[in-house]
Design a protein that fits this description.
This protein has helices at about 1-15, 20-30, 120, and strands spanning about 35-45, 50-60, 65-70, 75-80, 85-90, 95-100, 125-130, 140-145, 155-160, 165-175, 180-190, 205-210. With about 210 residues, it is mainly beta. It has a single domain (about 20-210), classed as Clam (outer membrane lipoprotein receptor (LolB), chain A), CATH 2.50.20.10. Strand 4 and strand 5 (about 85-90) form a beta hairpin. Strands 7-8-9-10-11-1-2-3-4-5-6-12 form a twelve-stranded mixed beta sheet.
């Protein structure tokens, strides 16, 4: 009788733990059907003895378009139209521009939220991370190493909600620095005009080619 009860409890526990491949597929399926996404974000950077917290609104649109409007603690703009990317701080005399092919920075994991890649294909060693605290009860954490950034990134953590949203992305770099993105108020398939991803330099602002490091 005791053995029977133990087996029942053990089975229930195993059933409550999702298969990592099933979870990853469900997340892929969720984002593959999206055309656009609008969300509020908080970006937290820790490294080199400093910590920086910024926030604003992010728009994503297939294929490959993104617009980051930072509002706090200062305004700045990062956008990509699928071909080129720009970075501009209001009041500066220059805006920087580069090809999106050159972007191997930490915002590349957002390709998952654009439904452009598959988690199991892009993240080596994909697994559940029950040792990592979640932001909200019921969420689950996936961890893996981005194949394209393995020389720079030690691991990426993705917090997944029961609805299969990605609510948080944590990128831990080989140099010990950590960048975390938190997303809230996600709105899917909202109307987003392509002009939102078109950068028009303000009068007197020079556009120069170069690194878009923020």
């Amino acid at each position: 009788m005791l053995l029977s009860c133990f087996s029942t409890i053990s089975f229930a526990t195993e059933s409550a733990t999702p298969d990592v491949h099933v979870l990853a597929q469900e997340v892929d399926n969720h984002y593959n059907h999206l055309r656009t996404l609008q969300t509020e974000f908080v970006e937290i950077y820790k490294g080199a003895g400093m910590e920086r917290t910024e926030s604003g609104t992010l728009w994503l649109k297939k294929p490959g378009k993104m617009r980051w409007e930072y509002r706090s603690p200062r305004e700045k703009l990062f956008l990509g139209d699928g071909k080129n990317a720009w970075f501009y701080v209001p009041g500066d005399q220059q805006a920087r521009k580069t090809s999106m092919r050159n972007l191997d920075d930490l915002q590349s994991p957002l390709a998952f939220m654009l439904g452009k890649t598959k988690l199991q294909k892009e993240l080596r060693g994909l697994s559940l991370a029950p040792d990592v605290p979640v932001s909200s009860p019921g969420d689950q954490i996936l961890r893996g190493v981005p194949k394209a950034l393995a020389d720079r990134v030690r691991q990426v953590l993705l917090e997944i909600t029961p609805e299969r949203y990605i609510s948080r992305i944590v990128i831990e770099q080989q140099d010990g620095s950590v960048t975390e993105y938190r997303f809230r108020e996600q709105q899917e398939n909202v109307a987003v005009d392509d002009q939102l991803f078109h950068f028009v330099p303000p009068s007197g602002v020079e556009v120069v080619a170069g690194d878009l490091g923020q």
